[in-house]
Amino acid sequence: KEEAEEEAEEEAVTEEEEEAEEVVSSLLLEWRKVLHLGACSLSLELSGAGVQSKLPVGCLEIQLSLLAPHPLPAPLAPPAPPLHEAGAVEAQLKAERAAELDAERRFFSYAKAWWSDYVSSSASLGRRPVKLFALSELGVQRPVTCFVRPLDSGRLLESAAQAAHFVSLLRWERAMPVGGTDVWQSMGATLARRAGEAEELAVLLCSLLLGFGLEAYVAVGKDEAGSRVWVMSAAEQGSFTFWDPASGARYHHAPCSPAASPYLSIGCAFNHESFYANLQEDDALSSSSLALGEPLLWRAIDPALLRRLTPLPAPRLTAPASQDGRVGREVALEAQLRRRLEAHRASLDLATSWDTALESTLGPALHSYELEAQCGATLGAPEFKLAVKRCTPTGHTFRGYPAHFTHARPAAMARHLATAAGAAGVLQCKAPRARLALRLRTFAYPDGVTSAWLLLACSAALE
């Protein structure tokens, strides 16, 4: 009987594992049509994904309404937001679409000439894994750079290393191309399915690393089995960190001591704003230089043309129930703390400007501080330093002041920052074009005990 129950349990688990969510259809919705009347109804025909994009699979009725930013009772409600003339909205959408089509036509024409020039340099270059375009789930060929976009994890992932682990938890799969056509699904579809092919997992991981402020690229090359895709991020002194999207493993690759990684050769590397193809006589990683900015070693695509292309939409990560409340509380605490710090600087006749891009790089440091307090070990310090360096403009300096509290009271935190000697150089910065950044992270413990870390930082021009 016990054996029969165990077999039945195993069959149930197997059946559950085999049930995978699939993307039936994907479409881009132009919501700005609601700006004319404040409400509208849309009837949309749903087409299949990828190579099945010409096949209808259903229809969707959507009703859109434009709401005031802060709904209040009628007597206190602000006036309705101004609505735009239908002609103005349509003209704007038409102009944007025309600009998109023009940018795509220019890029396709440029890419054709670029590829011809690239392969004419050497007969072996045409056989290298250099991929310029991929079929999206919308059924349209898009430059591969359009699939990548900096993705802010919104406090849901603590560090680049945790982002790599998160991506490795998604199911890796290798779908057989239908009719020989390989389809790359968007990051939104990858997250919705919690699964993806190697290219899709690499695109997601690269986008997350870019969101943490790292200089990251999707790398296309080969291993012992054939084609291979991974992510690489720039480190110090010309070295790189290789990230395996499927396993989360990391490998350090230095110019003088190549990484002991499964990757054997590299054909190209790209992100949302750059594309490089390997020009070197030998594309083996053991002998190739990864100095992507060297035009004699790597053939780049004009970045101005890449910037004009419209990327695929970037999704927002969904918070698990256990973190949803924590994130909301931290955002509210930061808002209160910012107002108090702005008031303090105003009392010193100092204006305050916040750098949201710099703020997004501070989170990993707070997580590292708590880990160090727990177990005496620091994690992610090299990636944090690289992200801060990349976010600090040339000719500027970065200053930061970390503080730890056993409560989550913004008034007490602000008083500490206003009086602490170490914080004065940041909070009272008078340098021209100074921009402040603030990030707070709370850690809950049993019986209402709280550990709170904040990092107040400033980026200012060198005097």
TrEMBL record:
Centrosomal protein of 76 kDa C-terminal domain span: 330-460
Gene3D superfamilies for the chain: 3.10.620.30
Keyword terms: Cytoplasm
PANTHER family: CENTROSOMAL PROTEIN OF 76 KDA
Pfam families, sorted: CEP76-C2, CEP76_C, CEPT76_peptidase
Translocase in keyword set: no
Keyword Transferase on entry: no
The name this protein goes by in its record: Centrosomal protein of 76 kDa
Species of origin: Emiliania huxleyi
Domain CEP76/DRC7 peptidase-like stretches: 182-300
Localization, UniProt: Cytoplasm, Cytoskeleton, Microtubule organizing center, Centrosome
Domain (CEP76 C2): residue spans on this chain: 15-69
One GO CC term on file: centrosome
